[in-house]
Design goal:
The longest helix is centred in the middle third of the chain and has 32 residues. The termini are far apart. The chain is flat. Strands 1, 2, 3, 4, 5, 6, 7, 8, 9, 10, 13, 14, 16 and 17 form a 14-stranded mixed beta sheet that branches. The chain has a 3-stranded antiparallel beta sheet with strand order 11-12-15, with no helix packed on it. The chain is an alpha+beta fold. Among the domains are: about 55 residues, no CATH class; about 140 residues, no CATH class. The chain contains 9 helices and 17 strands.
């Protein structure tokens, strides 16, 4: 009889999990799905639209924009090869359509002739996306969208999303309370089932033990399990301070508005993210500026930021942008000069010119961004401003202290 009840429990748990799992998407990733973003993973950056299927366990796919497709000629060659092998016209029609489209977008040269495509096993493979598996979440540094790169339509959608975070409607508040309540109830049910079945599991057959344990584990990590964190819940829509260990290993602090959190991620909006860049200098000319990590899918155009002057034995760096820039290091012929100074617009710094004709300048610019950080990489260490309830208490305490000072 005990085994019969255990079997029923296992079946019920499995059915509940199957229903929930069909619709489960991480609630942070749900807010950024089908948006364009840069995904920093290991030493690479992938840009594209985020496709997040249900049951992905925190994983997702970055679908490159057309500008970021790698080796489109190989894709066309594959379609033509399939057409020749199968005589299925859909392959030819797709090849013709994509060729015309890529030509219009400037991805393929205007003189590209589909009838002269060479099919070779030595051609580099085409690539239109990067799959980020749930097992790779720990390798992600951040998922970031730079506001300046958004279209007007995307900016309007963002402001609408921000408005709902700052001032959520009554229905949204109610939905969130229900969602958090379901998570709490789920935790209690899981704990109760675990406690009640623990004794029986000791004498149950091995197969049944595994079935029940798997079902309990899946329920414990399913969609309605979105962790309720009281210290983060009361900070939704508030300015928070985040500690983050960046790709270069440097520990940095950022501020922004907490938009959402989940078991795996935190979503911080209006962050002034500091992007690390290197400038190659030849004489008094900056010949190239590029990020310190490799970009796939699309590399953002870096605005004109710095100007170099070399005269009278002085090496001068001038900030010609409208925003502050942090100059970090100047490297030439193995010699490294640490600077670490913030230059405001039109501000300059002068060094004694002891450098060779060619040099490398490392610096940072700040870009307004919305950032998804894995909770394994970033921690919200506190609020950046007073919420109304706390501010009232602080002001009341301040007034009381002032009154005490007057009578003592």
């Amino acid at each position: 009889m005990p085994f019969f009840y255990l079997t029923i429990i296992a079946v019920v748990l499995s059915v509940i999990y199957a229903i929930i799992d069909m619709f489960s998407i991480d609630r942070v990733l749900k807010l950024v799905r089908e948006t364009k973003a840069f995904v920093f993973i290991e030493n690479e950056v992938h840009f594209g639209k985020l496709h997040i299927p249900p049951r992905s366990g925190g994983g997702f796919e970055v679908v490159y924009t057309e500008e970021g497709i790698e080796n489109p000629q190989t894709m066309i060659a594959f379609l033509i090869e399939n057409y020749h092998e199968t005589r299925n016209k859909k392959f030819w029609e797709k090849a013709v359509y994509l060729t015309d489209y890529f030509k219009k977008k400037g991805i393929l040269p205007k003189d590209f002739d589909i009838n002269k495509v060479k099919i070779s096993a030595w051609n580099p493979p085409s690539l239109v996306s990067r799959k980020i598996y749930s097992s790779e979440v720990g390798k992600i540094w951040m998922i970031i969208s730079f506001i300046d790169l958004l279209s007007e339509k995307e900016k309007k959608a963002r402001w609408k999303r921000l408005s709902s975070i700052y001032s959520p409607s009554i229905l949204k508040k109610l939905y969130r309370k229900v969602q958090n309540s379901l998570g709490y109830v789920k935790d209690k049910i899981t704990a109760s089932l675990t406690a009640q079945s623990a004794t029986l599991l000791k004498v149950a057959p091995t197969d049944l033990q595994k079935t029940l344990q798997d079902a309990q584990t899946k329920i414990a990590t399913s969609f309605i399990t979105t962790t309720y964190d009281a210290l983060l819940e009361n900070s939704i829509g508030r300015l928070v301070t985040v500690k983050f260990k960046d790709i270069d290993g440097e520990e940095k602090f950022y501020q922004g508005v907490l938009g959402e959190y989940s078991d795996k991620y935190i979503y911080i909006l209006d962050v002034d993210y500091r992007l690390q860049l290197e400038a190659k200098i030849k004489g008094d000319q900056i010949i190239n500026i590029y990020p310190t990590v490799k970009f796939y899918g699309f590399r953002p155009k870096i605005p004109e930021t710095l100007k170099i002057e070399r005269k009278d034995g002085k090496f001068t760096i001038i900030n010609i942008s409208s925003k502050p820039v942090r100059i970090e290091k100047l490297i030439s012929s193995g010699k490294e000069i640490n600077i670490f100074k913030v230059l405001w617009p039109q501000e300059k710094i002068q060094l004694t010119d002891e450098f060779q004709e060619e040099a490398t300048l490392q610096f940072e610019i700040s870009l307004e961004s919305d950032v998804v950080w894995p909770r394994s990489k970033a921690t919200i260490i506190g609020l950046g401003d007073y919420p109304p309830s706390l501010l009232k208490r602080v002001l009341e305490d301040f007034e009381l202290i002032e009154k005490v000072k007057k009578i003592t």
